[in-house]
Design brief:
The structure is a homodimer. Chain A is of the alpha/beta class. Helices cover 46% and strands 11% of the residues of chain A. Chain A has a seven-stranded parallel beta sheet with strand order 1-4-5-6-7-8-9. In chain A, helix 8 packs across helix 9 and helix 15 runs parallel beside helix 16. Chain A starts with 15 loop residues before the first helix and ends in an 8-residue tail after the last helix. Chains A, B: Pfam families: URO-D (PF01208). Chains A, B: Homodimer. Chains A, B: Keywords: Cytoplasm, Decarboxylase, Lyase, Porphyrin biosynthesis.
């Protein structure tokens, strides 16, 4: 089965990523890597020279080039929109910067009602550069689907409240439990902003969307459910009508997987700490009413530096575990480290494509036939 | 029941910490805090002025003073030996420093067979300053038990291999899976060194011992069991004959709790991500042969900045969950943050002592009567 580039295929998607996300059995196990476009690529470092992170995200041509780089280099089954979780906040005028070696730095951290004024809703024109970049990308990508990129309200809130990266999120959590009304207002505003950011990408042509709640794993289940999940659910629910698969990802979220699916995800991103079939089993055990659980993950990125035979066996292990789950999108358990060797990633892609299907069959999953 | 300071009480321990650790029901729920001796205390900052971390750990009078500071200030049920996980390595001559704001920095990171030569066994005299400090402390502490302090082989290995703190432990994991013989030799040496460090403390008078495997939570269960657990088990087994309760702690170890108990712990330290009774239930469900599971934890330290009524309710929640477990030692889920207000910690201790027992009873645990 092949299709002309640009053909709408929402009813019968043939892209392996979209088939797997729907719990169908594609011709090959789809693979992409979080942060596949980034510092590990020499061609990325070249085009970013002298250009700040936020500036690079604001130039549609550059976003297009950077997003395409790993697609050119690897035979990946998806492109991930090159952006930063801070981009929608920058777009509405929050005074912030991405400092190399540090991360996001917020000029005036949000600690009270007054600070909230920085967070206005997205207005017409704010995201035109996003629309332009996605449209340019989709035209170039042809059949390879573009995944929309967005940080989740909690992870964004953690930067806004702390003023930058944090080890323990002490101020964020203190606000969350100690000033619940302020927290609610903050999270509602962030949910509206991130929903707009994600909708813009999908409406411009992204064929899937991933919500990155990178730091949600720092929360207890109870706190996640009470103070975070409703807002992530608002974002995921806010794009449900667009009909693209929604991937929900965080690090260290073994305890939160059920809730993260419940928030409205079609695909659950899993880090390397638990096998994919254990993750899926956990969700099914807790929520019998959910449909087939589709997983994305979960090779430990720290193992990319291991000798190839060892790494290859780890890739196969992930494929076997993913083979016991209705749908599997191969990925790392977190982003590509800047030190990763692109040739190693290329070999991982080859291996997933070469052996993925047979390892799935060996796992014995009752495949849903593609009609 | 009271006892003269220094009375041996190994058969019938009356200290609440030791009773709880044995699954008995003490008069009050015991409480102490990881890193209770440290930067959050003004008296600590005063005595440390102009003295480096490692120097402070090498002076028995200063170790005694610093260890006692929180015991004087709070009515805690245990002292934790003031030290650093790097101290035993420093004692055998590894060239390292603790850099303020950074953490341990290793002059020559261990990456090959040659690097291993830095890790000789502990020799007579190496730990005399530890023995002296513990003896001094025990004389001062009277009935309050001293807990021995030790970093676990994996956490130590991560610093030695990376050369310092790390986000992803990429080099460590690459060695673990890619050079298994080198890894084995490294971990065996570290297990011998840390066993000697912990034995020294217990033989000098510590009445419990905690093994800190702070970063073990970065591993998958499979990797933990294959490449880390045997060495932690060697350490815990290596002090079993001394008859003191062994506490085993790590951060983000929800998936590893069963294995960490299996390694030979009498008390399992739990971070804030899962309720204590869920943690204990998980261990019991997997290992029916283990005796009563005793837990330590697990207030989220990030919540110490919350308004008191909110924090108090969180303390009560921890007590209720701990009340559904055979034995509970109240603690934070990780160390006291430097920014914590000592007055807040004092109130937490008071609350645990005032309400802990009644909340346990309300939880309805079948208490083992103290004969």
């Amino acid at each position: 089965m092949s299709e002309a580039p640009g053909t709408p295929e929402s009813d019968h998607p043939t892209a392996p990523l979209l088939q797997a996300a729907a719990g169908r059995e594609p011709d090959r196990v789809p693979v992409w890597f979080m942060r596949q476009a980034g510092r590990s690529l020499p061609e990325y470092r070249r085009v970013r020279e002298g250009i700040s992170m936020l500036d690079s995200c604001a130039r549609p041509e550059l976003v297009t080039e950077i997003t395409l780089q790993p697609v050119r280099r690897y035979d990946v089954d998806a492109a991930i929109f090159y952006s930063d979780i801070m981009v929608p906040l920058k777009a509405i005028g929050v005074d912030l910067d991405i400092v190399p070696g540090t991360g996001p730095v917020i000029a005036e951290p949000i600690r009270d009602e007054r600070g909230l004024a920085q967070l206005r809703d997205v207005a017409e024109g704010d995201l035109d550069h996003i629309t332009a970049a996605v449209q340019m990308l989709v035209a170039e990508l042809g059949p390879v689907p573009l995944i929309g990129f967005c940080g989740a309200p909690f992870t964004l809130a953690s930067y806004l409240v702390e003023g930058g990266p944090s080890k323990d999120y002490a101020r964020t959590k203190a606000m969350m439990v100690g000033a619940p009304r302020l927290w609610q207002e903050l999270m509602e505003r962030l949910a509206r902003i991130t929903t707009a950011f994600l909708r813009t990408q999908v409406e411009a042509g992204a064929r899937a969307a991933q919500l990155f709640d990178s730091w949600a794993g720092s929360l207890s289940v109870a706190d996640y459910r009470a103070s975070v999940m409703p807002y992530s659910a608002a974002v995921l629910g806010g794009i449900a009508d667009l009909g693209v698969p929604r991937i929900h990802f965080g690090v260290g979220t073994g305890e939160l997987l059920v809730s993260m699916v419940e928030a409205g995800a079609d695909v659950i991103g899993v880090d390397w700490r638990i096998p994919l079939d254990v993750a899926a089993g956990r969700v099914r055990a807790a929520r019998e009413d959910v449909g087939p659980v589709v997983v994305q993950g979960n090779l430990d990125p720290a193992l990319l530096g291991a000798p190839w035979p060892v790494l290859a066996e780890r890739v196969r292990e992930v494929l076997r575990a993913g083979g016991r789950v209705p749908g599997h999108v191969f990925n790392l358990g977190h982003g590509v480290p800047p030190t990763a060797d692109p040739d190693t990633l290329a070999r991982v892609v080859e291996l997933v494509h070469a052996e993925g299907r047979s390892l799935r069959s060996a796992g014995g999953v009752p495949a849903v036939s593609v009609s």
